[in-house]
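hi support,

uploading two proteins for the ticket. first:
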Amino acid sequence: MAETILSIILNMNPPVPMPHGACRTAQAEGQTTLGDLRPGERATVTAVCSRGSLRGRLLEMGFVSGTDVRMVRFAPLADPLEVELHGYHLSLRRAEADTVLVERV
């Protein structure tokens, strides 16, 4: 089983899960979720509020604090959505995007 460098680092230093209440507090302080962005808007990732394997997968895809993202477009029924980060385009379900906290730039 081939492991990525990030997964090896995460296994050495597992991420501390963010308490569910902390995500609500962050949203109340003016931060929003990735799913709330409109096409063309840019934002900076502040936190990933999901847990378990979804959290690890989002971190491996590059959704770490300080990463700049741009909302590209939505599918016709607004799910999935396409974002650009680290020079590549990525499609996410809206439920997954709603676990990524961002701050509009």
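and the second one:
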Amino acid sequence: MTFRHAFLVLCSVLWLAIGCTAAWGQTTHSPYSRFAFGDLQSGASAPQMGMGQLGAAWMDRHHLNTRNPAAAAYLTRTTFAGGFGLRTEKIMEGDSATRGEVGGLTQVAFALKRAGGKGAITFGLQPWSNAGYDVSQIRTDDIADEYRISYAGEGGLAQSHFGYARRWEGTKWKRFEGTEMAKADSSRIISHVTALGARYEQRFGSLLRSRTIDIANPIYLDTRVETEEAHRSGGLTVGFGHERLLGSRFDRDHKLVASTLLRFGGFAQLGRGHRIDRVIRWASWQTLSTGPLEVDSVYQEETVHDIDLPLSWSAGAELERNTESGMRIRVGAEWEQAPWSSVPGDWLDPGVAFANSRTAALGASITPRGLDDAKGMWQRATYSLGWRTTSGTMTTNEGDLASSTMSLGWSLPMLGSRSGSSLDLAFQWRTLQAGDNPLGLRERSFGATVGFTLHPFFKNQWLVPRKYD
């Protein structure tokens, strides 16, 4: 691959990234997204979504891991990943409920890697947080009688990244018994692989929020507080991965036909400075038959908040078994935590604060047959199941935010390509609420993510024949 090719690819991805920024739009209706940075995203790709969003030890030869920067070194060749998601959300409080649908692009990511090479360059763009809510409440007051207080907001923060990963391989000799009166022969195989990676990330975007008090008594003016925040920060994420061959089986021709692999890895988002430029504007409104009319702009205030985001880390392990029939089974688990309570909360709404977050995840996948032995798409597809639970990040008067997610995944290699390019689907069921009050604010959602993985070749060939490994 020449420098000219790499430059053209980079320009194409940047062009797509600019389009993605506009196309993401509102991707949540969650009322909890009005707190702090909004609804935080893990950054997982569609295949990872199906396995509980695993990323610490999730090393795949043909799919890009967009969480651990070291994982790109395990790819067999240049890889492009993208996708979009759709979600329906049901928000409940007491006996009342409302429902809404949202959707948008999830990521655009690229790993440049020469086939057989040890290093990989990665870059891309993906959402880091989303905000989109419109909730209201009827209250009473001794002076103003009945009034409605409403909260509305939109926007989100994106994350662009650029990184490098490299791997180192260790080998050993596998000796085979020769025939009688003949010498034993041997073959050198890869016994373990270690990868390190680092990625620079730039987060940016804006959040628009408003709080309106609509007083039923026409004597009083209504008020609205509008807040516009511009966010930006930059920092590093470092990662590592290790893969070890635990067992292997060879046929009579000394060809590897079965293996057992153990992987473990982790990554850390290093602490970083985050800048918030905030503009708050208070205004008085009079509700008329034609709609609200601004009477007076009471006050406008511009402030700057420089905060330090905490160091967060994730560690995990994965076991992979490949059988003689071509079946592949993978099982993994990981743990993630971040001390968010160290972040000052003086810029947050009253009654809201940061809280330490803890995340646990489990995932499993199975591929019934390899491409050479599969009969039909159902045998060559990969099926995955995952579970993920998170507690913390934010706490309210009701308690810490807690979410639980169940997921199913399906990945299908493109018919006839034998290149590793695939169509990836993931389905997620998530519950989210603060505290244990069964009548409090609760959120239930179902989402579907459609992703695709392509392995381009720069001689105008996007689908290159290969053997299933």
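thanks. also noticed: The radius of gyration is 26 Å.
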